[in-house]
Structures are given as structure tokens and as C-alpha cells.
Specification:
636 residues; alpha/beta; eight-stranded parallel beta barrel; six-stranded antiparallel sheet; 13 helices
Length: 636
């Protein structure tokens, strides 16, 4: 990763100043290297308003006068090589601003940091890890994500498992326990809440000070590499939550880095994010563009990350997002769109896909902005996936409705298909929905204890068979009853209770079935992959539909009974005259259901119904999801 030279080239400085240095981490920060046969560290930092910049650290008693940096022309970049400073040295930049004030700042490009509450940067050589994921990288270079299964397990490393308050598991320990758990439960990807260095545990990493620094809470950067490496060796992709929309105001961070607004806009109304108490980036500044785009590539280059989920896109593209009227501004065209942010997002996606064509760059966007996942050359923002927040909000509202009243809000369960192909969607059941008093997914479900589980299994069946990729936050797989407790760990002891253990088996089997059935993901983004059988049965609160693979005879028939009524004889239209096998039944005894007697096979008859040429009679228990697949010998 290091350049091996003791100074940053004029070419790199030019590109950085013009927003075109996309591997800026190779030039900036603290790089152990050699000059004239002497080992040391090269430092480089952008601070154009500073009068002086020095390096203070544990090697000079935190007095920087003995380690001054030199300004490189008119670039605003200060740099120097110092012999004798090596891996593990703690340091900060001692900045003298234009008014002569002296203050210490952490390195924006630091590759490692002190464990909080310490705030110093730490010199770290990231070149020493030996990767074992070559087969994964080769497969990924050939794999197209759109036509592959994607079942994501979202996890917060600091509360999946811990040994006690603030006694976190290390990256290395998670590389075994967490990765095996994710792989054994049928997930294709793990998505990790932000692990960029952050001062406050309860920000979960969403308020960052060290964009290039893997948090030291869980150990050394090489430990994170081992975690990613082992994911790949077990066939699991790795996504990182990435937060370019805002940064925290802590004194040692990016705020007024050289005494004046630098990474943030000069206009306080544009810079301030009052909802979170943070600051926005100045997306129109070329050096900030180089900093952020390089950061996205850094995690893919250095840590082999397979993709990023870009947080809070709506807050970036709307100048007045969640701001009071006195902070409202307009762009040069008179609108409220942040034109600089829109241009930067498009540039980010063009650059990432130039170097990593099969990467995942997923927008967490609550806005109605069109073309979020459309290519930039067609006027889109250029992401390849977007979280479907509309589906999530509608379905949670629907599922929280008592079954007896669901017929009155039936459209909540069907409306998503009106726009399902407007974007490439991920269906998220994320951490945001199970915290801050929102209750866990299980506890959102109406009814008594057993009925809550029936509702949740039914919901998961609909979620897994609805077009779109899938994401589930940790704990949802076994029906955690309490909402997410970010200072503790998941409620693993509940697995001693039969219904929770049965829920874990159900989500495992459902996920494995999903992963192995092309009809559930091969045509996620094409109307050819989905057809309603009956979307309008509000009276009985029953939905039925077909998922198709690319081979027309490759299909599955799904039925969801969202009512508490049983239908011992229910006629269902189907596309072929085959016998259909019951592939999944959320009411099975093994999954905590009633275990009501259910035939294994159902013969379709030439009795047209629901616009289908054939139909069959099935048994439909209350609050149940059923999935049927045709026998191998399918009759047209």
C-alpha cells in the first residue's frame, strides 16, 4: 500500500487539488518508508489556511517544534520525512492557524487510532497481511450481482456478542464465531455497521473522526483483514456501512481543521446537520472529493471489501433536510437540491465502478429522487442498489395491524409492486427499525406470544419471496423479543425456549431455500420474474403470486394468509398442470407452528382460475406462508 517514496509527487498533489486523486491514501497520512537507507515515516496533510504544521507525538513529548512539515508550493499540502519514527508511534498534527492559535488534530488519513477515549493517530503499516481469498476475488470478478442471491446479515460488531460492558470481541474472534454463524445460517453477505474510528460508542460508528482508520475497539487492522478474509473463504461477501454525509464536531477531528472551515462548507446553514449535531462535507471542494472517493476505494483496495452501503443519501441531496426555516438555503438555480452533492455522488459511482465493476454500492435513501440506481450516463445517480424504505414502512405498518383489520389496509401489502422495478431494490429489515422504542420485529407483531411468532414467520416468507434483495438485522433471525440493546449483546439465552429456536430454524431453512432457488432472485429486477395470482383478495387477507426464473418452467407459487382464519379448502390458480410439492410451510411443527395435517403434494386440474389455465385445492392455515414448487415433470 505504501508508495515507498519519502515525498508526495507534484503529479499527485495536482490531482488532489483538482479532485482527481482517487488513491489519495497512498500519498497522504503517515507512511513508513525509507530515505537514503534510513527507515522512518513520511507525513503529508492538507491544511491550506495554516501558518505552520508540525508533527507532535510520543516520540517528541507531544511538542512538534522538532518535527516541522514543509509547505509544498501553493497546493496547501504540508509534508516531511522523519527518520526513526515507525510502526505504532502515536501522533497528531500540531497546527498553527492564520491567527497564531496552536491546536492538535488527528490525521484525516490515519490508518489506525488510539483506543477511545484516546484520540491520537497511530502509524500503521497495512502491508503485512497475507490474504487467502484469491479464489473469492476471481469469482467475484466474473459474478454479476443482479442475477445472484443476496441475503444480507446486518451486524453491529460491538453488540453481537461481548464478554461484558465494553469488553468487545476482537476482529479475530469474530472471524471464527460470527463468520461460521453467518455461513451456517444461509446468508450470502454480512453488512457491518460503520467501523471507521468514532469517539462515542452509541453513535454506532455513524459519527466518524477517522475515515481511514478501522476502529481500535476490536483490535488491529490486520484483525479486520482476517475477518474479511475468512468471510470470503466461507463464501460470504462483506459490505460496510459508509457515512460520507456528515462527520462529528469533536475538536480532534475534521471540524475547522486548519482553523477555518475546510472539509465542511463555509456557510454554516449548509454545513450544520442539526438533526444529528454534525457537519456536512463540502462536496464541491475538489480536495474533499479526492478524500472521500479515495476512502471508498481504500476499503475495497486494502481490506477487500465487496461493497458499501452509503448512509443518509436523502440528507446529502436536499440542502434543507430536517432543518428549521432559518437555515433554509437555495442553490444557484433557485432549487433546494444540493447540486454539489449530486455531482459528487455521480462521480463517486463512476469511479468505483471503473475500478470495481461488480462492487455493490447501495443507497440508503428515503427520498423520492428518481433514477437512484440508473446509470450516470442516463441521468441517474449511478448506485446499483437502493434500500426500499417504502416497502419496509408499508409492510411493518401492515403487519402491526390486527389480522381482523388487515382487509382495510390491504393496499399496504400490494402497493410495492407498483414501483418494484423503478429501481434495483434491497428490502431492508434493519437496525433502524428495532431501536429507540420502536420494538423488535417480533414484538411489533400483534397477538399473544404464539401468534406473534406465526405473524413473524409469515412476514419473513413474504419478504423472502417478494422481488428484491434481502437484509435482516442481527437478532431478527431468532425472534429477539426486546429491541436492540446496543450496550449489551443479543439475547442468546432465549434460544433455550422452543419458539425462538424454532424461529431460528425457520429463517435458516427459508434462507437456504432462497439461496438455492433461482426463481427467487434470478429475475429480481425484471417484471418477467413476478406475476400476481390474486392481489385483490382483501376480504380474506390472502396474497398469492408466482416467482419465475429465466427458464419459464422454473417457477414457485407463494401463498400468504395474513388473516387469523383457516381455509381448509382454498382453490388457487396455477400456471401448469403439474403436481405441486409443498416446499415451505411456516405452520409446520418444526418451525413452532400448529403442525396441522397438510398434504405434501397437490395436483393441479384444468380448471382455470385467477387468470391461470389450471388450479388446485390447498389447505391454508391461519397466519401462514406456503411455498409450492412443481414436480420435475411439468405438464404444459
Amino acid at each position: 500500500m505504501t508508495t515507498g517514496t519519502a515525498s508526495v509527487s507534484q503529479h499527485d498533489l495536482y490531482l488532489y487539488n483538482h479532485g482527481e486523486l482517487f488513491r489519495a491514501y497512498r500519498a497522504f497520512g503517515a507512511h513508513p518508508c525509507e530515505r537514503d537507507g534510513e527507515r522512518g515515516t513520511r507525513f503529508a496533510v492538507w491544511a491550506p489556511h495554516a501558518r505552520e504544521v508540525r508533527v507532535a507525538g510520543d516520540f517528541n513529548g507531544w511538542r512538534g517544534a522538532s518535527h516541522p512539515l514543509a509547505l509544498s508550493g501553493t497546493t496547501g499540502v504540508w509534508q516531511a520525512f522523519f527518520p526513526g519514527i515507525g510502526d505504532g508511534a502515536a501522533y497528531k498534527y500540531e497546527i498553527v492557524d492564520a491567527d497564531g492559535r496552536v491546536f492538535l488534530k488527528s490525521d484525516p488519513f490515519a490508518f489506525f487510532s488510539e483506543l477511545r477515549p484516546g484520540t491520537a493517530s497511530v502509524v500503521a503499516n497495512l502491508d503485512n497481511y497475507s490474504w487467502g481469498d484469491h479464489s473469492w476475488q476471481e469469482r467475484r470478478s466474473r459474478s454479476k450481482p443482479y442475477e445472484r442471491p443476496m441475503l444480507v446479515y446486518e451486524v453491529h460488531l460491538g453488540s453481537w456478542r461481548i464478554d461484558g460492558p465494553e469488553q468487545f470481541w476482537s476482529y479475530e474472534r469474530l472471524a471464527h464465531e460470527l463468520v461460521d454463524y453467518v455461513a451456517d445460517n444461509g446468508y450470502t453477505h454480512i453488512e457491518i455497521l460503520p467501523i471507521t474510528e468514532h469517539p462515542f460508542d452509541r453513535s454506532w460508528g455513524y459519527q466518524t473522526t477517522g475515515y481511514y482508520s478501522a476502529t481500535s475497539r476490536y483490535g488491529h487492522p490486520d484483525g479486520l483483514k482476517k475477518l474479511v478474509d475468512r468471510c470470503h473463504q466461507r463464501g460470504i461477501g462483506v459490505l460496510l456501512d459508509w457515512v460520507p454525509g456528515h462527520f462529528c464536531k469533536d475538536d480532534h477531528g475534521l471540524r475547522r481543521f486548519d482553523g477555518q472551515p475546510l472539509y465542511e462548507p463555509a456557510d454554516w446553514r449548509v454545513a450544520e446537520k442539526p438533526l444529528w449535531g454534525t457537519l456536512a462535507f463540502d462536496f464541491g471542494r475538489p480536495e474533499v472529493q479526492s478524500f472521500l472517493i479515495s476512502n471508498a476505494l481504500f476499503w475495497m483496495d486494502v481490506y477487500h471489501i465487496d461493497g458499501i452501503r452509503v448512509d443518509a443519501v436523502a440528507s446529502m441531496i436536499d440542502l434543507n433536510f430536517d432543518k428549521p426555516p432559518e437555515m433554509h438555503t437555495r442553490n444557484k438555480r433557485g432549487g433546494i437540491e444540493n447540486l454539489d452533492a449530486l455531482a459528487w455522488i455521480r462521480k463517486l459511482n463512476e469511479v468505483v465502478f471503473r475500478y470495481y465493476p461488480n462492487a455493490l454500492v447501495i443507497a440508503e435513501d428515503s427520498s423520492a429522487w428518481p433514477g437512484v440506481t440508473a446509470p450516470v450516463y442516463l441521468g441517474g445517480l449511478g448506485f446499483n442498489y437502493k434500500w426500499n424504505m417504502g416497502w419496509m414502512n408499508d409492510m411493518l405498518k401492515y403487519m402491526e395491524t390486527e389480522p381482523a383489520h388487515r382487509s382495510g389496509v390491504h393496499n399496504l401489502a400490494t402497493f410495492s409492486m407498483m414501483y418494484a422495478y423503478a429501481e434495483n431494490y434491497v428490502l431492508p429489515l434493519s437496525h433502524d427499525e428495532v431501536v429507540h422504542g420502536k420494538r423488535s420485529l417480533l414484538n411489533k407483531m400483534p397477538g399473544a406470544y404464539e401468534q406473534k411468532f406465526s405473524n413473524l414467520r409469515l412476514f419473513y416468507g413474504y419478504w423472502m419471496t417478494h422481488p428484491g434483495k434481502k437484509l435482516l438485522f442481527m437478532g431478527g433471525e431468532f425472534g429477539q423479543y426486546d429491541e436492540w440493546k446496543d450496550l449489551g449483546e443479543l439475547d442468546w439465552p432465549v434460544l433455550r425456549y422452543p419458539l425462538h429456536d424454532s424461529m431460528r430454524r425457520f429463517t435458516r431453512d427459508l434462507g437456504s431455500f432462497y439461496r438455492n432457488e433461482a426463481a427467487l432472485w434470478e429475475q429480481d429486477h425484471s417484471p418477467e420474474g413476478f406475476r400476481w395470482i390474486d392481489a385483490d383478495n382483501a376480504a380474506q387477507s390472502v396474497l398469492s403470486y408466482i416467482r419465475f426464473g429465466k427458464k419459464r418452467k422454473s417457477h414457485l407459487v407463494a401463498v400468504c394468509n395474513f388473516s387469523a382464519a383457516a381455509y381448509p379448502v382454498f382453490r388457487l390458480g396455477v400456471p401448469t398442470g403439474a403436481s405441486y410439492r409443498l416446499a415451505m410451510n411456516s405452520d409446520a411443527a418444526d418451525y413452532g407452528g400448529s403442525g396441522a395435517a397438510m398434504p405434501r403434494k397437490f395436483k393441479a386440474e384444468r380448471h382455470p382460475m385467477h387468470g391461470q389455465p389450471f388450479s388446485m385445492e390447498i389447505v391454508l392455515p391461519p397466519l401462514t406462508f406456503l411455498l409450492f414448487e412443481p414436480d420435475a415433470s411439468v405438464e404444459d
